[in-house]
Design brief:
The protein is mainly alpha-helical and 299 residues long. The protein has helices spanning 9-37, 42-64, 75-99, 102-109, 112-123, 130-149, 161-185, 190-215, 223-251, 253-258, 263-275, 281-297.
Length: 299
Amino acid sequence: MDLTTPFPESHERRAELLLLAVVSIWALNAPFAKYGLGGLDIWVFNGIRFTVASLLLLGIFLWRNTWVPVIRSDWPKLIGLGLLGNFFYQLFYIFGLNMTTAGNSAVLLATSPLWTALLSAWIHKGKVFPQQWFGMLASFVGIAMIIIGSGKKLAFGSEAIVGDLLSLGAAILWGLNTNLLKPLLSRYSAMQISVVTIGVGAVCLIVAALPDAMAHSWSSVEPVFYAIPVVSGAFSNAIAVVLFSYGIKIIGPSRSANYSNLIPVIAFVAAYLTLHEEVSLIQVIGAGVTVAGVWIARR
């Protein structure tokens, strides 16, 4: 299919609704996974998540899809995407978050739509319209307001410079991964691509987790902490990834990536409703600005 051929408006509306479901899953996964990490080693946790995700995707694919023969020259691209989006991104994100403040990490990761748009213009020679730039920048401002309103310190000091750079690198990797997916989606289904790329990530993360898994006292951990990565892997790393790839195919990488700016808004509301956290006026305004930015950028 020609990448320049527009999809019907009904397809775009469906893709946007699915993208809203995706960001909801990813937003709710954050506190869910954080709780699970309190009982499991981070490498073991990720190993379980991606094992479940890869097996689930493979099972769904074999049940409902037909394998399309992969062109020989596409195999390196698929394997590279698996390493980029499901291994290196995870490492940059996790270690960046560990070495810098949560406020720094959140702000830097929130720049991923901007990197996606820039890389889209470079890789696909696409035009980024003024309203898209304005919408993305407005979303970024809204996210910053939410973080500032929460009272978290935005300390871009020298002690956290490595973590800051890793978090920024994670945002750039996600933007690059989003763009590199698009050409392959014209030849293969989102499900087939996800089966391969998440499978590659799972193998790498399992190998990386082996030393800690061998030293791990499996019987001493409460069953709930094993259930959490299973559920997280099934929804956040499998189902949501396929739906996100579908969104890229229908409405493009820049508009799809901008939906990720809604993640902190949803997480902020969920925390208020479930944990009864105090909400400041600046956070409410920031949530509104972020939502408005997403709406403007998708026009």
